[in-house]
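User: For this week's homework, look closely at the record that follows, marking any run of repeated tokens, and judge whether sequence predicts the tokens.
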Amino acid sequence: MCVQNHPEVQQWALEGGCLPPLLALCDASNPACLNKAVLALGCLVRNHPSAEQAFRAQGGGPTLCQLAASPHHTVATKAMRLLAWICRPQDAAGLLDVGVLPVALKAVQQEEEELTQLREAALTLLTALASATPLTQCDQAVELRSVVTARLAGARAASGACGFLSLSTDS
């Protein structure tokens, strides 16, 4: 995308009104279209505070939360990565309210080898949420601890077979 990492072009695109059409594309049923929409949104809002603010004001967070639950794993992965990027303390409660935590927890629990990037994006999103708000006070705190503990146990077992990586779940 020509706007990525070009603040002047990002501002021009924002002032030109490209954000609403990009958000509207997130309602498409075509996975290729959804992938391109999330990619374009990321290019527009990353490292551009005005675009991030406009994105939030126009409902970008809830839109990405819906895409994070997409059955199309590449769309869900990209949406979770962008959510993690934009997650700030002022966003966390709203993201939790629209159901991002159960979506991320479900993604972390996926076992298929080809879903490694989805799991990684979900863990990155959970880290961003935990950095922005105390997740111990949310309704899914017990499930969150259980899921992360199980994932760490699986990583420990896999790494033990290879002879590296010592992970602790203490604390």
